[in-house]
Amino acid sequence: MVSFTDGAQWPSEKPRLQPVHLTLTIAHDITKTAETDDLSHSIDYSSICKTLVDVCSNQNYLCLESLRDHILLETFHRHPEIQDVTIQITRSRALLHPASTQLVVTKTREDVGDHEYLTIQDLECRAIVGINQCEREEGQLVAFQLTLQRSPISTVPFSFRSLAQQIISSVSQSAFLTLEALAYSVAKIALEFSAGSCEHVTVRASKPSALVCAEAAEVEITRSLKNGSVVLRLPIASGPSSKSHLTSGIGISGASGSSLERTPNIPIAKRTASHSLSEAVDNIMATSSKPSLGPATTDDPIQKDNDALSTLSQLASDLSLEEPSDYHRVALAIGSNMGDRFSNVELALRLFETDGIHFHRLAEDGFVHVINTSFLYETEPMYVTKQPKFINCACIVETNLSALQLLTLLKRVETIVGRVTTYRNGPRAIDLDILTFDKEVIDTRPLGERTLDNLEGHLVVPHPRLTEREFVLRPLNDMVPDFILPNTGKTIRELFTSLLSTQGPDPQVTHKVVPFPRYPLTRNSPELDSFLAKIPQVTPPPPTATYWKFPLCPTTATRSQRKTYIMGTLNATPDSFSDGSVNNNIPAALSYARSAVAGGADIIDIGGYSTRPGAVYVPPEEELSRVVPIVQAIRTLGQYQVADQHSHLDISVEAQARRVLMSIDTFRWEVAEEAIHAGANCINDVYAFSGPEDLRGESNEQEDHFQKMRQVARDLAVPVILMHSRGEASANKDYSAYNYAADVTGKGAVVEGIKVELGRKIDAIVRGKGGLRRWYVIIDPGIGFSKTVEGNLEVLRNATSITDDKPSGSTAPRNPLAGFPLLIGASRKSFLGGILELSDPAGRTLEGAQSQERGVGPLQRRWLVLYNRTLL
Fold first, then answer.
1. H/E/C letters for each residue in 61-119?
2. What does the entry list under GO cellular component (predicted)?
3. pLDDT for position 363
């Protein structure tokens, strides 16, 4: 019990004893206590409790603020071991109706704290609210919870009583149709009442009598006051963000379970109830909830890599995204079936993200940031079938534009890319649609004209045909499967699964596709010059050389035959583990290219830096000198004379070799950039943009390396092969931290480790502002890299599970590698030599192919790129 001089339920000029609930959350390192079981390293809960009792019982207090100050003062004075404390003070009899008041603040010994939270809980009154006739005739009970963030912390008493009286007076005279409008009016009252001291407010309004089978119907909103107007604001926490802590004091508890936490660039990281589009994005990103790899020394490369992974994951939400006062999360559909379809899609995305070319009629500070993309799909046309196949995808954007402003922008982008109006559902260079806009339902058509035939010139969100279109639901399912589509009450995953279940026995087959750009570019082409003259701010995307595709099998269809794409390997190094000094000159490299193409290779991987254990350091300049001339020579095949043994090759093989796809095997952005400009089409990085071990001790260097690698891949619009690795290939083979995923035979930890560790890197690469398009990523589980013989065999036997759309770990919502194309590189690896007792890598080629053939059966459900030189 605490004595306050401002009264209890009723105002009073005399001090009134009343119940107060205190919660102290104390941040304290428990490591020493846990290791030694020595009380001297712990916190004396009894002593802290006595301090709180003394503070509460020895004097009268004017308000919550004065009690707050005395508790903080005495706690830090009497208990020097406490450095960081959060206090929550609740007066349960402070107001009528029968509301309680609460103050929450976090303070360190040195810092005064920059904000605090003021809450009125369980404020009740009667009001007319609802659309039913009975609700319009008689008032019903409504309840409110308000949380205001006050900044900076103030000693001036906040008048909870006056605010509550204003709210009760206004609400009791209102007659809103919706709970949302009622909550908005309360937020407006609170913001105007506290103007100058509180930045924003969260209001939760409920109707306890609305539903028979539920406690209440509720709505929660967060608003701020900007230039005198109430505007949308990201939800604020009702208390400090959670942290590792010990708790002590009277009425011990953690922070409120209903608190909403915010991350720098993710609008909503956790919500008590509902599945918003923001949540769906954030939940998929939350793949770091797996068990850690346990304690490790600072020299442990696995621990270094995991420390780096946390940095890379943070990059997915911290990539220079300005945090505006309010913005929206929007899902867009993109389609193209005229011209260079892939280039059209990339150009549309670049136009979204280039400020200054399309906002001249909109707000000067308008922005659109692409923060996530789906895979790419080739689909049969719907409705009007006599037209070319479409390339379809979707993306999530953040924007401060209104829905109608965004629609105007989309039409502008369609015009720039080259859409020519034909007939409805007809061919087009680019088609852009707003699928969802936050959780809003928007329809600009007159009430009597809302039919599916009346869509032209109007904005209808969610898109009215969304639920019937696989080519829309499938891309959304790639990104936000748990988003509940407004007006349906179902998640995207549920709608997508339901749609597939209704398809007939022989549905049209959708293909997942990966486009490869054509390099080198023709710098002085008339088309390029014309484009640059019109839009100099935008780097034009490269033209498409070809694309790979594989059919997707709906659950009701018979599995289709898949093509296995073959990768040849050309090592332009003197010290490769399998063929050093064999192809490190141009005539030999060209000879290999011809033979590879004749043998069926679809792509040739060219590397100038050996990844074998103990390989010597190669400077960037030397690596460039090894690979770039070979790339140029293959692209200009015919300039070099080749030995007579190749004279039997058909002229068509020479032409094919000149056009063959090439990947550059490097972890250096400089080498990748130069090789692509010289004619390569793909980047193959064994470190998945995280760099070698010598970068992992310096987080700034690794972040810079990551940013540059991702930027090069994004700017050049090239596919990337990203491999799972753990530093030196011959070390770091312990996966016991993932034993929770092992089956009854003890297998599964290695596959789980790949999902978790590579999944974190992929998340950081494809999500957030500046992210690489999802459709450009191919994953490599890293056979032969930091895995035992048994671990490599586990990967081969269970390769299909690496990209299955199933949860990874006990709490993860989804496998972060779900749906990505997979590359298997087993040929000539040392583990095959160990099994077959073959020390010469050249003798392992056939066995590599056989091991792969044994995996083809279970891998039929996934796209496979075979890393093999058997046919070459």
1. ECCHHHHHHHHHHHHHHHCCCCCEEEEEEEECCCCCCCCEEEEEEEEECCCCCCCEEEE
2. mitochondrial envelope
3. 66
